[in-house]
Amino acid sequence: MYLGIDIGTSVTKAAVFDDAGALVAVEARHTRLDSPAPGRVEQDLEEVLASVGAVARAVVAKAGTVPRLVGLTGQGDGVWLTGPDGRAVRPAISWMDSRAAPIVRRWLADGEVEKSFRRTGNAMFPGAAGPLLAWLDAEEPAGLDAADTAGYCKDAVMRRLTGVRATDVSDASLPFLDPWNRRYDTEVLDRHGLAHRAGLLAPIADPLPIGELTAEAAPLLGLPAGTPVVAGPFDLPSGALGSGVVRPGEGHLIIGTTLACQVLVDTVDTTGEAVGMTLATSTPGRWLRAMPAMVGTAALDWVLGLTGGTHEGLDGLLSASPLGARGVGCLPFFSPAGERAPFLEPAARASFHDLTVHSDRTDLTRATCEAVAYAARHCFEAAGLGGGVATCGGGTRSSAWLRIFADVLGRPIRLAPQPETGARGAVLAARAALGEDVDLAAWTAPVAVVEPDPDRVARYDELYARYRSLVDGARHGWSAV
């Protein structure tokens, strides 16, 4: 048996898998997001650790067996400042935080975002470690002085469980990794005024950080001291691995709170618009060109909350409004931090258009779901999709929305084994790092395939062109704000 733990932004999940990859048991606990001021989003490391322990103990009890190893994954980006004892020196700053937006706007204006992208294949956004470290250096330097590590969520948890201070190449990728030599790019650090803070970056364990559960941490998980623990890739690459994306050109779509679109590639391309991420994987010579948009099910949550709809009734709402939502369209940029992919614009905002007195809540709902699918297509086009698409995430529970995605993308969509695809990927990465043989095809076999309808594909091609035109026009207005 194997235990995978996925430390998400608002939910920590744990899953136990058997040797063949079958899901044996699963547990989840919500974690709190604090907002001490407008635009600021923080988390308490101790509360996150408590959630990790709670789900681990509960899922192992359900499974009735002690796992052979623990694989970790979790949210990426943000800054988790810890001291020499592994404890937080201040609350963790989430990737959702927008306090560094003025810094990003300044770096955009003076060309620093683009210059960094040309070296790393990664674009800065307000919740990335680069802008947040620059903000901390200017506004809270004492916090950085007290810390010995400015790391990421799963790495902070890994250190408390094993004492290992390290990160992996996926988390290290944004924003300071040289994607070719898999080491930190000192010039990028220097260009952003952070060279004097380079010592805060955790050592990169290639391919992954590996440790053993300490005697002190063993009671937290309810597992024997000495149990192998591996900090896998963060949630985007772990989700792709757990979905069976292993061939260059294949895409991965996470329909979650945000919308993550990734394409596995075998070359690094730093030309084109400076946007998105180039994430090193555990396999040298393979990268994920990722476009993690800020839109996703959070946009749908807002609309359903406003109109009195429910997720359980989503398929009915979508079937009650025809393709094209009776002309109603949506720009789904609901995040207060703006957008980060497939374009970077902190001032991006949502809107509906072509509403009339005849429009109803089903049209608003369908327009939002269609717009999120258009955003996915926009992201995949920017990432260079050339093959099939696998998907996972909470949004996949709606069969009607999945059909919209298939029709908008014009490609079959493979539904990955669920739930806890990220935890599955963490276990697969851990087993590989420890030298175990695994039948990847069996572990990641799709549970369903959604085929596109040719007639609907043609109609959505027209509507997508309209969407792109509206986005292009809106970007001119946002940039003037």
Key features of this structure:
Nucleotidyltransferase, domain 5; alpha+beta; six-stranded mixed beta sheet; Carb_kinase_FGGY; Sugar (Pentulose or hexulose) kinase; seven-stranded mixed beta sheet; transferase; FGGY_N
The spatial strand order of the largest sheet comes to 15-16-14-13-19-20-21
Tell me the strand percentage band.
Answer: 15-25%
Q: State the CATH topology of the largest domain.
A: Nucleotidyltransferase, domain 5
Structural class call reads alpha+beta
Described by the principal axes of the CA atoms, the overall outline is globular
CATH class of the largest domain: Alpha Beta
Number of helices: 17
**Number of extended strands:** 21
Distance linking N and C termini = 54 Å
Helix content: 25-40%
> Uncertain spans, ≥5 residues at pLDDT below 50?
none
Keywords: Kinase, Transferase
Domain Carbohydrate kinase FGGY C-terminal: 283-433
InterPro entries: ATPase_NBD, Carb_kinase_FGGY, FGGY_C, FGGY_Carb_Kinase, FGGY_N
Protein name: Sugar (Pentulose or hexulose) kinase
Mind sketching the topology for me?
Layout: E1 2-7, E2 11-17, E3 23-30, E4 42-43, H1 45-63, E5 70-74, E6 80-82, E7 92-93, H2 101-109, H3 112-120, H4 129-139, H5 141-146, E8 149-151, H6 153-162, H7 169-176, E9 177-178, E10 183-184, H8 186-191, E11 210-212, H9 218-221, E12 228-231, H10 235-242, E13 251-255, E14 259-265, E15 277-280, E16 287-293, H11 297-307, H12 314-320, E17 329-331, E18 351-353, H13 361-383, E19 389-392, H14 399-409, E20 413-415, H15 421-433, H16 440-443, E21 448-450, H17 454-479
Parallel strand pairs: 1-5, 5-12, 13-19, 19-20
Antiparallel strand pairs: 1-2, 2-3, 4-7, 6-8, 9-10, 11-12, 13-14, 14-16, 15-16, 17-18, 20-21
Helix pairs in contact: 10-15, 11-13, 12-13, 13-14, 14-17
Keywords: Kinase, Transferase
Family: Belongs to the FGGY kinase family.
GO molecular function, one term: kinase activity
